[in-house]
Design brief:
By secondary structure, the protein is of the alpha/beta class. It contains ten helices and twelve strands. The strands form two sheets. Strands 2-1-3-5-6-4 form a six-stranded mixed sheet, with helices on both faces. The chain has a six-stranded parallel sheet with strand order 9-8-7-10-11-12, sandwiched between helices. Helix 8 links the parallel strand 11 and strand 12. It binds NADP nicotinamide-adenine-dinucleotide phosphate. It catalyses: shikimate + NADP(+) = 3-dehydroshikimate + NADPH + H(+).
Length: about 270
C-alpha cells in the first residue's frame, strides 16, 4: 500500500524530482494561512490507479497530476469540470464530500493568464504550437475560446491531426502545412514539446516570423534552452519561459481546493531567481 504519511495534497508524476510544485504550494499555504501540506510523489509507471486510490483513502484531499499520467487521471475521475471534459486530460483532482473525485485541467487558464500578464496574446492572434502532447490538450480549448487561430506542428503528424479532430468544433485549428499556409506571420509561437530539437531544414520559413512575433516555452528547466536559442536565431527577443504558466496553473488548482486564488506575482519572481 502507498502510505501518504500526513500530507493532504501532492503532485504525482514520473519523473518528479524536477517539480517546483511543492515550493509553490508551500508559498501559497504561507500566504493564505491555509493548512495545506503538499509533497511530490514518484509513481511507478504501472501503479497510477493504486497510488491515487490509496492516497484518497488516507489523508489525500487534492492532487496535481503531471506527465505521463494526465490521461489516466482523466479516466480516474468520477466527475469532470467542463474544461477537463473537453481536454480529455486532467492535471488537478479534488476529493468531494468524502464520496467522489472531481477532475479539472488548469493548464489552459494557467497559460492564458501568463500570456496576458506578458502582453503576448490578443483576440484573433495566429498561434503556432510546436508539440501535440498532454499539455497541448489542456490549452487548446481556452486559446480557441479566447478567439485565436491555432496551427499545430508536431514530430508525429498523426498526433497533431488527432488534436485537430478533437478541437475543430471550438474554433479555427489546423495542422501546420507551410505549403498551404495563408498566414503572413505568426503572432505567437509556443514550444510545447518535452524535447525541442532543431531541424536542419528549420521548423517554419523565417518569413513567418516578424519582429512582433512572441515566443513562449512551456518548459522552464534551466537545462532546456534549445527553444530560446532557436528564437534568438530567428532574430527575436520577445521570449518567455513557462514559469508563469506553472505558477498560475498551481494557483487555479489551489482555488479549486480552497476557493481562494493566491497571488502569483512575487512567486514568479522567486521562481525565476
Ligand atoms: N509550464 C507549465 O506549467 C507546464 C505545464 C504542462 C507541461 N509543461 C511542459 O511542457 C512539455 C510537454 O508536456 P506534455 O505533458 O505535453 O508532454 P507529453 O504528453 O509527453 O508530449 C511531449 C511532446 O513532445 C514531443 N517530443 C518529445 N520528444 C521529442 C523529440 N525528441 N523531438 C521532437 N518532439 C518531441 C512529442 O511529440 P510526439 O507526438 O511526436 O511524440 C509531444 O508532442 C513538458 O516539458 C512539460 O514539462 C509545462
Amino acid at each position: 500500500m502507498f502510505k501518504c504519511q500526513n500530507f493532504n495534497y501532492a503532485v504525482f508524476g514520473n519523473p518528479i524530482n524536477h517539480s517546483k510544485s511543492p515550493i509553490i504550494h508551500s508559498l501559497f499555504a504561507k500566504q493564505t494561512g491555509i493548512l495545506h501540506i503538499y509533497k511530490s510523489v514518484n509513481v511507478p509507471l504501472d501503479k497510477f490507479n493504486v497510488f491515487l486510490q490509496d492516497f484518497f483513502k488516507q489523508d489525500g484531499q487534492g492532487a496535481n497530476i503531471t506527465a505521463p499520467f494526465k490521461q489516466e487521471a482523466y479516466f480516474f475521475c468520477d466527475k469532470l469540470t467542463k474544461r477537463a471534459k473537453i481536454a480529455q486530460s486532467v492535471n488537478t483532482l479534488k476529493k468531494i464530500d468524502n464520496k467522489y473525485i472531481l477532475g479539472d485541467n488548469t493548464d489552459g487558464i494557467g497559460l492564458l493568464s501568463d500570456l496576458t500578464r506578458l502582453n503576448f496574446i490578443k483576440k484573433n492572434y495566429s498561434i503556432l504550437i510546436i508539440g501535440a502532447g498532454g499539455a497541448v490538450k489542456g490549452v487548446l480549448f481556452p486559446l480557441l475560446s479566447f478567439g485565436c487561430s491555432i496551427f499545430i506542428l508536431n514530430r508525429t503528424v498523426s498526433n497533431a491531426k488527432k488534436l485537430v479532430l478533437q478541437f475543430y468544433k471550438y474554433g479555427n485549428i489546423d495542422v501546420f502545412d507551410e505549403n498551404s499556409s495563408k498566414i503572413k506571420s505568426f503572432d505567437l509561437i509556443i514550444n510545447a514539446t518535452s524535447k525541442f530539437i532543431e531541424r536542419k531544414n528549420n521548423f517554419i520559413p523565417v518569413s513567418l516570423v516578424s519582429s512582433k512575433t512572441c515566443f513562449y516555452d512551456m518548459n522552464y528547466q534551466k537545462d532546456k534552452k534549445m527553444f530560446m536559442n532557436w528564437c534568438l536565431k530567428m532574430g527575436n527577443n520577445l521570449f518567455s519561459d513557462g514559469i508563469g504558466m506553472l505558477a498560475f496553473q498551481a494557483a487555479h488548482s489551489f482555488f479549486l481546493w480552497h476557493n481562494i486564488l493566491p497571488k502569483t506575482d512575487y512567486i514568479i519572481d522567486i521562481l525565476k531567481k
